Amino acid sequence: MIEARGLARTFRSKTGVVEAVRGVDLDVAAGEIVGLLGPNGAGKTTTQRMLSTLLVPTAGEARVAGCDLRRDPIGVRRQLGYVAQGGGTNPAAKVDEELVTQAQLYGMSRGAARERARELRETLDLADLGDRLIKTLSGGQKRRLDIALGLMHRPKLVFLDEPSTGLDPHSRANLWTHIRSLREHHHATILLTTHYLDEADALCDRIFIIDHGKIVASGSPAELKRRISGDLVTFEVEDIARATEVLAAVPEARDVTPVERGLRVTVDRGETQALPLMRRLDEAGVRVGSLHIAHPSLDDVFLTLTGRSLRDAPAAA
Amino acid sequence: MPPHDGYYAYLSALAREAPEVTMLRDAMITFRYQMRLLLREPVWIVIVMIQPLLYLALFGPLLEPIASTKGFPPGDAWQVFVPGMLIQLGIFGSMFVGFGIIAEIRYGTVERMRVTPASRLGLLLGRILRDTLVLLIQATLLTLIAVAFGLRVPASGALITVGIVGMLGIALSSLSYAAGLWLKSEDALAPLLNMVAVPILLLSGILLPMSLAPGWLRRLAAVNPFSHVVDGARAAFRGDLGDSSLAIGLVASALLAVLGLAVATRTFQRESA
User: Fold this and answer.
1) What is the ipTM of this complex?
2) Does any domain span residue B156?
3) Torsion over CA of B53, B59, B61 and B65, rounded to 10 degrees?
4) Do the Cβ atoms of B33 and A187 come within 8 Å?
5) Using CB atoms and an 8 Å cut-off, which of residues 129-188 of chain A contact chain B?
6) Is residue A30 less than 8 Å (CB to CB) from chain B?
7) Is A154–B2 a contact, with Cβ atoms under 8 angstroms apart?
8) Position B179 in a domain
């Protein structure tokens, strides 16, 4: 659905040339939900804006929904739904005015657009709000309207830029449910950007971690966590010295570290490797009181890759 | 699989349509959308008219004794003054639409519409069409009110002048949109408009005819295309349709409209606008 090679974009500013995106390769298959994860200023939005024809790349090529980004931007626009970070609604307009006008700009007839607007309002919990002025909507309602606007023309591909930023936890969880259902009910492929780890973790099949305009890692959330740090398995044992001796002889168990009332090791896959390790201990006569498997968070991944925590990363524009 | 393959076939059929057709349709969609938003706050349509009405009521009477002065152009005071007011409405009524596009940029609606396959020229023309239609209604109303004040004008001359006002409206709303898209900030647009508006107004002979001016000022005014437009409108109001100043005024306003549209189109098609 998306194949991008070496996409790059520089901006000229008063202080010099800013390389916002420096050579991004991206592959997204049909039906995937893919996330671009990174701190503010990492180049996520710039990448999305290039892929949505809003910005011309300084370098690189891409095919989006089967159309060449440079040669057929109209073809790309036709099949793409783009939901910008700040949304895109006029507070003085009514919900259905925006929805119907949007669909008409994609070539839909007025009648078909009205019907589609009603349908989308129902699926996005906006059923009775067609006649409401947009300035009277809540933050969550407005965000769902933004998404409805992006879906009016039944796009194959939907871009969501920071979908849940600024929403309260309840609206956020609700929005996630709707984003997941985009794939089921609308057969859409989704590329979203986020700087929230839990959002990437909760929604995405695959994640591209982007920092300083470059992709520094990619994979499923589980793969990324496993690849970078492995899982932590903690055994509660009494004879720590003996247990250390036993596990140090097992090559899969790395970083054997004594902890309070037990022992911690790092393994690639906690679920499949913890029990064999426990059996080893058992065979060697070490009694294991309990077993705990901890998966690293995406924040750990980001920290390992960039040396910075995602939360502490500087908030550049 | 997606139930909308037929829809894509329909879209690609549209893509084969002449681009002009798409452009006009998108212009009409935009026009209707913008018009509906405007009519939700119709008070603005009236507020723009208050300024020329005040001039008509509070400044027009001052001209009556001056009309007999040497150098005052042919025609009575109202025939000289009302066309000036119409041109002023054409300039000032359209000049500030750039503020609207800045607000739309801030809402994100401009960007949202730019990601649709809609013709960008169509998105722009729809807005200009709304502005011009409103202006034509205002100009007609102003002329009718002036008749009540004592204006005598041939219908043909009044119609031609309203047409000139429409062309000025196209020119100035285009340029104002271009400036708004370019500056993206109200704080920058306001001083720019002021800087441009005052010399245009003073050097156009809108308030007092330039025939009263000393030679150097008249030569300066001759550089201002709007002064020719005003002269043309005055000739039309006298019913002097064969006068060369009317032809010049028509050409000047048409050129201004074409120039404005060209500048605005270029700005709107620029990627970062």
Assistant:
1) 0.81
2) yes
3) -150
4) no
5) 149, 153-154, 156, 187
6) no
7) yes
8) yes
- The per-residue pLDDT for range B25-42, each reduced to its tens digit, is 999 999 999 999 988 888
Residues of A in contact with B118 (CB under 8 A): 105-106
Helix A139-151, helix A95-105: angle, nearest 10: 20
CA distances from B119 to A13, A74, A240, B14, B116 (A): 30, 9, 73, 12, 8
The reply to whether B39 touches chain A by the CB within 8 Å rule is no
Q: Which value, to the nearest 10 degrees, does the dihedral of the CA atoms of residues A169, A175, A176, A180 take?
A: 170
CA A96 – CA B165 distance, rounded (Å) = 35
B184 is a domain residue: yes
| Cβ under 8 Å to A: B residues 113-132 | 113-118
Mutate to test the interface with A, among B115, B268, B270 (most CBs of A within 10 A): B115
Domain count of chain B?
1
- Cβ distance B115 to A106 less than 8 Å, yes or no, reads no
Domain span at residue B141 reads 24-63+73-269
d(CA A161, CA A147): 11
Asked if residue A302 has pLDDT above 90, the reply is: no
Is B272 in CB contact (< 8 Å) with chain A?
yes
Which H/E stretch holds residue A48?
Answer: helix A44-51
- Answer yes or no: are the C-beta atoms of B242 and B220 closer than 8 Å: no
For residue A2, the surrounding DSSP H or E stretch is strand A2-13
Angle at alpha carbon of residue A9, lines to A5 and A12, rounded to 5°: 165
- C-alpha–C-alpha distance, residues A18 and A317, integer Å: 12
Q: Is A291 exposed, middle or buried (0-12, 13-18, 19+ CB in 10 A)?
A: middle
Task: Evaluate whether residue B11 is within a structural domain.
Answer: no
- Residue B11 has its nearest CB partner, among A55, A107, A149, at A107
- Residues in chain A within 8 Å Cβ distance of B108: 84, 86-89
Per-residue model confidence as pLDDT tens digits over A226-284: 766 678 888 898 888 888 888 888 888 877 888 888 888 888 888 888 888 888 888 88
User: What structural domains and CATH numbers belong to chain A?
Assistant: 2-225 (3.40.50.300), 231-295 (3.30.70.100)
Looking at residue A317, its pLDDT comes to 34
Q: What is the C-alpha separation between B204 and B231, in angstroms, rounded?
A: 9
